[in-house]
Each structure stands twice: as structure tokens, then as C-alpha cells.
Design goal:
Helices cover about 35% and strands about 15% of the residues. The chain is α/β, with parallel strands linked by helices. It has two domains: about 150 residues, Rossmann fold (3-Layer(aba) Sandwich), CATH 3.40.50.1370; about 150 residues, Aspartate/ornithine carbamoyltransferase (Rossmann fold). A hairpin with a 2-residue loop joins strand 1 and strand 2. Helix 1 packs across helix 11. The structure holds phosphoric acid mono(formamide)ester. The site of phosphoric acid mono(formamide)ester has 11 residues, from helix 2.
Length: about 325
């Protein structure tokens, strides 16, 4: 029977962390704890999880120094679904343009009485830096090419939901591995839960040392596709690339894009993920992005439950009797 209050204790793990900065630092059981808690927040019937009061009286701020659609909106909704008050800060239009520093900006907002700061920044390690300067909890909502832990968690949650398990699955991460924080969070999380991970892309988009993380490397998508239970298609991060790292978008699409013809080489029940936003016609053709193997919008929906679980574990309280 589901209880109204998910205990901040799941299985053998009692949650003790104040910050979520990456999946690299988490114990596998901590990842399972978040996934199990997200299941508690998943509504089987309605459009979204029902409202709770576990964060009543708390204030959650979105501190976004980079653009976002999914992460920002779902963290805001997750906080409100748990009864928190929310502040939505974006660097554009703020006093950052007058020269106020990142840490000063965050400390001034914290002075309003913040319990949790959800931080996105282009600089790797920026959320970690804030966790050393603020008293409130900090959640990494994406830091440069380092990590995007809640995206990794919602990808893994979706895999577990669709496939029933993660251990023993072969997961292909395809595309711009070098610039992708989603790739890094997926790699850490999936390996900790016992998946086999193959990264695939042009050699210019795969870091030379990536195998040290425990993944296999491939450069021909058609060779690995028949092996994969899941493929997570990563966006080309044009905004993080300094110069052209492949001859043309058309050639990239021909060699690494997911299109109907290529999909015929895959297992029929291949689970196709993409963190979004997608460059339609580059990494995925529209018929594949919107087709039966795609779980792209399921990922977005699951992101709400996963973010509720993270906020709850970091700052939630039992509801009043
Ligand atoms: N996947 C993801 O992080 O999307 P946004 O950049 O829109 O938040």
C-alpha cells in the first residue's frame, strides 16, 4: 500500500545528503533510493503527481545562468507540487549585467530565506562552488559539460519503468559525448546500476579518456545498434563547440542520426531516449522522434516525479498530522 508520506528512508538507505551535485559521488543504493522515491510520486492515473505538503514553509529558488525549458519548469512545478514557495531567477535581465558576481548574486537571493537552490551554469563545478558558500542545499541542474544529475536520474527512471530493470541492459549513448553533461550523468548512474554502456560518435566528439570511466567506445552506430536495449540520443551541443568537429551536419546525420531505415537494424523493442531539446532532422528524424520506440515525452513527465523525489529527500518534512 502506498503511504501518504514517503519515508526519507527507502530499502536499506537513510538519506543524509544536503546537496545533489552529481551522480559520480552517489552510492548505487542512493540512486535506487531516489528512483524508488520518484515511484512514490508517480501518479498512475492523473496528468501529474498529486499535491503534497512535504515542503510547506520551504522556499526553493531556480538560479539559472543558462537557458532551459524542461529542467527549469519541472523543478518549479515539482517544488510547488510539494507545497514549497518558489523563486525563479534568470541571469538575463538581472543585476549580473551590472557586474554582480555569481556568488554575490546567490548570497543575496539566499538572504531572502532560501532552503534549496537549483543551479544551472555554463561553468563546470559552479553548483559545487555555491554549496561551499551558501547555507542552503544545492541541486545541480546542469553545469557546463560536467553533470546533469536529475536528467541522468530521469533517463534511468524511464529505462527502469519501461524495461523493468537496469542491470544487464546494453545502453548506447550516441552523439556529442565530449560536450554532454547528460552523457556523464548517464555513464555514472548506469554503470553503478549494472548496465553495459557503449558511447558512440565521431572520434572528435568522444573524449580520449572516456574508457577510464568503464564504458566501451564505438564509432559506427550501425555496428552497435543491434546490441542495444536502449539508445540515448544526445544533442549536438553547438553552443559548447569552438569549431566544426565534423565535416557537415548532413554527414553527421547520415552516420549517427536515428532515422527509420536505421531503426530497422535495432531490436524491435529498442527504447529510444533523448534528453531534449532535439535538433529535429539532425540527431533524430521527426518520424523516429515521434514514433513508437521514442519515450521523449515520457522522460519529461518522469522528470517531474524524479525532481519531486530529489527536493523531498534534500529538504522534505513529514506533513502535519
Ligand atoms: N534536458 C534539458 O536539460 O532540457 P532543458 O535545457 O530545456 O532544461
Amino acid at each position: 500500500m502506498k503511504v501518504d508520506l514517503p519515508a526519507r528512508e527507502s530499502g536499506k538507505m537513510i538519506w543524509t545528503r544536503r546537496h545533489l551535485l552529481g551522480l559520480e559521488e552517489l552510492h548505487p543504493q542512493e540512486i535506487v533510493t531516489i528512483l524508488d522515491m520518484a515511484e512514490e510520486f508517480t501518479d498512475s492515473g492523473g496528468n501529474r503527481p498529486r499535491k503534497r505538503t512535504n515542503l510547506r514553509g520551504k522556499v526553493v529558488v531556480n538560479l539559472f545562468f543558462e537557458p532551459s525549458t524542461r529542467t527549469r519548469t519541472s523543478f518549479g512545478l515539482a517544488a510547488r507540487q510539494l507545497g514549497a514557495d518558489t523563486i525563479d531567477f534568470s541571469s538575463s535581465g538581472s543585476s549580473v549585467s551590472k557586474g554582480e558576481t555569481f556568488i554575490d548574486t546567490a548570497k543575496n537571493i539566499e538572504a531572502l530565506g532560501i532552503d534549496l537552490a537549483v543551479v544551472r551554469h555554463s561553468v563546470p563545478g559552479a553548483p559545487h562552488l555555491l554549496s561551499q558558500h551558501l547555507n542552503c542545499g544545492v541541486v545541480n541542474a546542469g553545469d557546463g559539460a560536467h553533470e546533469h544529475p536529475t536528467q541522468g536520474l530521469l533517463d534511468i527512471f524511464t529505462i527502469r519503468q519501461v524495461k523493468g530493470h537496469v542491470e544487464g541492459l546494453t545502453v548506447g549513448l550516441v552523439g556529442d559525448i565530449a560536450h554532454s553533461r547528460v552523457a556523464r550523468s548517464n555513464i555514472h548512474g548506469l554503470l553503478k546500476l549494472g548496465a553495459r554502456v557503449i558511447v558512440c560518435g565521431p572520434s572528435t566528439l568522444i573524449p580520449p579518456t572516456v574508457e577510464r570511466l568503464g564504458v566501451e567506445v564505438a564509432h559506427r552506430l550501425d555496428d552497435i545498434l543491434p546490441l542495444c536495449d536502449v539508445v540515448n540520443v544526445l544533442r549536438i551541443q553547438f553552443e559548447r563547440q569552438r569549431s566544426g568537429l565534423f565535416p557537415s551536419i548532413q554527414e553527421y546525420s547520415r552516420l549517427f542520426g536515428m532515422h527509420s531505415e536505421r531503426l530497422r537494424r535495432a531490436k524491435p523493442d529498442l527504447l529510444l531516449l533523448a534528453p531534449g531539446p532535439i535538433n529535429r532532422g539532425v540527431e533524430l528524424t521527426p518520424e523516429v522522434a515521434d514514433g513508437p520506440n521514442s519515450a521523449i515525452l515520457k522522460q519529461v513527465k518522469n522528470g517531474l516525479a524524479v525532481r519531486m523525489a530529489v527536493l523531498y529527500l534534500l529538504a522534505g518534512q513529514p506533513p502535519e498530522a
